[in-house]
Amino acid sequence: MRLYLLALNPTDSVTEGFLPAAARLGLDVTVLTDQPDAHRAAYPDLEVLECDVRDFRAVVTRISTHHRPDAVFTNSDHLQTQAALAAAYFGLPGKDWRATLRCKDKAEMRRRLAAADVDTVWSTELTEPAALDAPYPCVIKPREGVASEDVVLVDNAEDLVTRSKEIFERRPGTVLVVEEYLPGELYTLETLGDGRTRHVLGGFHTELSPPPYFIEETLTFVPAHPEPVVEQVLAQLDALGVGFGACHTEFVVHEGRARIIEVNYRAIGDQCDLLLARLLKIPLFEHILRTHLGEPLPADLGARQDGAARLEYPCAERPGILTEAPAATELSVDGVHLTYRPLRAVGERHELYGTNRDYLGVLRATGTDQPTVDRVSADFLAGLRWEIQP
Question: Sign of dihedral through CA atoms 105, 238, 205, 261?
């Protein structure tokens, strides 16, 4: 069976998750990408074809002039609609392209949720700097952005003009969404569906950097959110048409009310998906691929119920050249399995971004007792050293 996988740059989710899963399922994989050299270097034994994957018409043409497809899949935020349209064109299982568009376009997501009367958030779009009569504080974000890139809190109209001007200079032609700040604790909900059955895999409690930025610094696994909270989030996902394959939803809870921040209609990233598969002891990546092959999910995934986990992202605190950093490590301490992976190479120079690009590495920790997981994680990180020179 032939799987076409659409990708931009290589990611850990694909390299360590989906491609090994495809091999275990016996699938023939063809990677379609606009960055073929990077993918050929990452996995030289796979078929990699150059394609303008941001254009669904180019994707359809590349597939129709190659091998017959059995599935078209992507885990990229930027390519969900293209993959959905290509799958629909070839009559294959896939996500509804309208749902992928609603999730990717943050302004359209707000309009859809308001129209369905499940949540209304003050929101507007900007194509140039402007002083708005808005309910401050507000959050500015690119309409189709990811990974907290250019997401910033503003306190007044003057701040809005200054910040939006900076973003437009970095991103000519972009459209910004300005929306009211939603207070509350930040969480995620991880779901997996086949269009008929939907499984809730738990979620994470997310700790952010101090404002005005929104860098995700620590995630702690939540095996089960309160049922009323889950019901509210699922109702909002239903309004968006989300229910096929993997979905990573970020939301806040304030005084018992759950409100979506954004919906990433794919598996959770930044190595959280790798942790989730290990923690739950399920073939998560295989399940996701099987849904795109048209196979139904089992009624019971058999997920482990006693897991505890934590992810930590050490961040750069200043710009400069990374001159010293810990190497990749894997070990077990007091029943906690630790996996550390560097995310920035020694010798690289970086600015300070105020986004996930400030990550120096990621620590994944899994066990069965959360206090022990937290303690072991803190002790491990305390023994690491990063040196950044101007």
Answer: positive
Where do the domains of the chain lie?
2-92, 122-180, 182-296, 306-390
Rounded CA-CA distance 135/155 in Å is 9
Domain 182-296 CATH assignment equals 3.30.470.20: yes
CATH of domain 2-92: 3.40.50.20
Q: What is the pLDDT along the chain (390 residues), one digit of tens a residue?
A: 999 999 999 999 999 999 999 999 999 999 999 999 999 999 999 999 999 999 999 999 999 999 999 999 999 999 999 999 999 999 999 999 999 999 999 999 999 999 999 999 999 999 999 999 999 999 999 999 887 889 999 999 999 999 999 999 999 999 999 999 999 999 999 999 999 999 999 999 999 999 999 999 999 999 999 999 999 999 999 999 999 999 999 999 999 999 999 999 999 999 999 999 999 999 999 999 999 999 999 999 999 999 999 999 999 999 999 999 999 999 999 999 999 999 999 999 999 998 899 999 999 999 999 999 999 999 999 999 999 999
Handedness of CA 101, 105, 109, 111 (dihedral sign): negative
CATH 3.30.1490.20 fits 122-180, yes or no: yes
